[in-house]
Amino acid sequence: MKLSLNWLREFVDVDLPVPELARRLIDATAEVESWETIGANWEPDKIRVARVLSVEPHPNADRLRLVTVDAGSGTQQVVCGAPNVAPGQKVAFATEGARLRDGHTGESTVLKLRPIRGVESAGMVLSEKELGLSDEHEGILVLPDDAVVGRPLVEVLGDVVFDISTWANRADLLGVLGFGRETAALTRKVLREPDRTYTESGRNVAELVSVTIEAPDLCRRFTASVIEGVTIGPSPAWMQERLQKVGMRPINNVVDITNYVMLETGQPLHAFDYDLVRGKQIVARRAVPGEKLVTLDGIEREFDGEMLLISDGGGPVGIAGIMGGGNSEVSESTKNVLLEVANFRAGSIRRTSTHLKLRTEASLRFEKGIGPEMAEYAQRRALHLFEQLTGGAVAKGLVDVYPGKQPRPAIIVEDERIARVLGIQVPVEDVRRILTDLGFVCHFVPPGRYSVQPPDWRPDVEIADDVIEDIGRIYGYDKLPATMLRGKLPEPEPTPLMDLRERARDLAVAAGFQEVITYTLTEMAKLERVVPPSDTVRMAPLAVVNPVASQHTYLRTSVRPSVLETFAANRRHAEAELRLFEIGVEYLPTEADLPHERPVLCAVLGGPRETRWGRPGSDRLDFFDAKGAVEAIFDHLGIRPTFAPRTEFGLLEGHTAEVRAGKEVLGIVGQVHPQTAAAFDIAEPVFLVELWLEDMVRHLPERPEYSAPSKFPEVRQDLALVLDGATPAGRVLEIVRSHRSSGVRIRADVFDEYRGPGVPEGKKSLALRLRFQAEDRTLTDNDVAKIQQGLVVRLGKEIGAVLRGG
Amino acid sequence: MPDVDPRIEGLRTEALAALASASDEAGLEQWRITFFGRQDGRVSALLRSIRDVPADQRAAFGAAANAVKAELEGALEARQEGHKSAALKTLTTEAALDVTLPGRPQPLGRLHPVTQTMRDCLAAFKEMGFRVAEGPEVEWARYNFDAARIPEDHPARDMWDTIWVNTLIDGERNMLLRTHTTPNQVRVMERTPEPPVRVVVPGKCYRQEATDATHEWMLTQIEGLAVDEGVRMTDLKGVLYGWARKMFGADRKIIFHHSYFPFVEPGVEMAIDCFICRGNGSACHTCHGTGWIEILGAGMVHPEIIENAGYDSAKVTGFAFGLGVERVALLRWGIEDIRNFYANDLRFLSQF
What is the CATH number of the domain that holds A52? Predict the structure, then answer.
């Protein structure tokens, strides 16, 4: 909403500097986004008010005139091209050196006088564009008649226009009066309310129009009046100026009055051409579904049965609270005006304007909620202006149908509650002053309560805490000290999954992975690259109705696509290895419920390993880097995983494993299928890890399995086995690690795999480092030899392994 | 010593000459093996040969042989010491490193800056007794709006442009991507039969809006909620003050502006004093010359929401706040464009 400082000053004295006023309003009332100073560049001695004394033709040019003006210091002659210049007008007059805008380009310029077509010009009569007020350059700006000749223009037209965002519950702040009241309360000034007096010189209104409300649930109050014998014409310059400053186009005196009063009070009004109202009757009723009306903007609109229409004896003439119909519009030929000022249910206006996609100044105000008493207030204010500005006669009385009249109960505000909510004591005199300034009726009932009647224009105030907010914001939140919470702490609640997730995040970082966070909405084509058609859950992702872009339509059922995409995007800038991970959720649809949000860790790595110099080397990251990362993470978490070959959609068979704990699969690790990688624009071998945190959490040990380091030395032995080429090394390790012999523990690692000369065709050689350890004694060479012998026999029996060279 | 076996003196002379001619570590080692080797070292052999010396001369032979042994060992040690210190000297001179050469790359990952900021925020609140909870990103309209006192036909809904999920349940479209973490106020209170509640709820939120340097459609929020008897607005100020000082420096100041959110009463916006221009920059891009940076929305939980949770709103009060993690990250690091966060360019991410 735009707020003119001059207009505000009509209701309250403002002696604060503009930035200070803005700051106070921001602190207590609404968000002042910015302000614009009108006339900041108008030097008082160079741009003044002048009166046009005479207009003569230019001797050498048909389209130019010689204008004689009085600018307060004698008469001067200027050359002027404006078609609308006429004797008697008050105009803005600039002399040599004035800072202006160019009438054509709009750029800043300084006035330099020179003869125009052979005639000297003493100055310039200015257009709105030249003053920087608008783009209007068709004619000169005509000032209000009461502008004093010779007065600096900045004193007449200079103003500050604030741009303010107001809150969704404060329709009263969509009127200048609302800000007048706030400013008065904030600066302890007196509010001057607008004049609402007029003479009822016309006929009895009841004889002129009847009003019926058929939908009292949607229309709480409807007031109507009639002004007969109006003269349609432009509204006075002061009114036009104000309307324009806040962004509204002047139309004619009748329409301008309705807009002006709306901008002043926040209450919308609507003027009908009385003579076009059929049957001289108005009905507020629900639309018949499918009913149509051409609105003022020339568009035909169709209504449903929940939309409130204003009808006359012949059919709809307006959409209640939103826009009037073209069939009853005030025009040049209007003689008599029917003025509607009504109150409609906020939610209904909101719904109708949303459905019709029609937001108007009126609907924006009604949907925020307006007190029904404001209808009469605005009606009387408008009638005052009608009488002053249109020459019409105001009919006697008001039609006032008010089925929604309800006494508003007083709100009891306990002093104790103020302290309970705000945390401070507010002195009684401050509470009373603040509430009274804001228009509340406030009685202090000793020892400690207030009986408060909120004002008509504040339907948002419903409960004691609403009143406390008004007290707090005007009193000043800067008076609140910062205190610490007291009292009991809540019971701790275990969060194992969250804890695991954060540990996994740290471990992935420690393993050299950079965390990424990608968009959770994706597109079907990308999911299809990594999800098998047989996965009916993941292939049926939830879609959103109104995506920000089509590539963000589906809630992802796999994190893999976006991490692979991120890999590809970064490959463009990076030569060496890339290790990325994200912890995100898969949104898995469920029947008639919110989706299951399943957290996974997805990591992707690949590229040439860095050399000592940090340059891409010839050796590339491979499957075992990915697996190593999984092993490191699991080792830290205290889960002992096993790995087994797996067929996984989008991953390369023979290069992919599932990660298991016992019988349960906790994730996968493998090479992305080259075709899948290619679909993501990745042309190199790339490896993917996915860990399923919900499954992992069940396998977390409560605490690490700890054993004290043995006091006895361990014995190390290397063992070279020859076995079938297809037997997995994991199987060998499983046997060795499970081998128990007289309380001796064997730890085993593979340190080489070899196929080739010296090993029979179809066989391979595995080199193992064994570490033998007893808890209770130092092992002798003999002990170890015996255990090893037993182990080799077992390996022979179970998997046909023999000692190499043995 | 006229009666000393001449072999001893001969060996001594020979050994010392050989030692003198040994020029490097390998020569010294060879010398050691020749003269002191366990099996056939010549000094060892000499000592063993005492068996062949007549009994009456053995004492003298032994003393002389041992003296020579000690002398030779000493000589070797001296030579070795000399070599070691020469080698050390070489290390510190000719073999000195160019320490400005790059170190060997170590693979160390990093947390995303949003995660880092999130954790720092949560840590600040945890220190003040808040625990952490989470809630769903895909949410019912009932929790996102209605339970937060934002009914369907209320203009307050304009404050949150919603991305709706295309699912009809019982003929109604009521599933959405949560626009804020506020639904968790109700969710947390629902599962807490009795106050106190003191919780922070982090998570992703979504808005149907065009992205620019300061707006993203996917964002991360932290919701804070403290509900108990005796929770006051001054406590809200204290908690947020503590947090702001942790995140933005101990000399930070905060103020509350009036604001409106349907789920709180009173409602405020919190601003911190501009630590970029320190209130002196009329052209400051961060505070736009106001000296204050709007940073989060907060307020006292609306009594209706307290009542709906089954608590007695006459006694129990609470405060709530919602802060945007990306905005905090932008401010603390002076990042100009929020879109950097989810573009995931490592050239950006690797700087945090």
Answer: 2.40.50.140
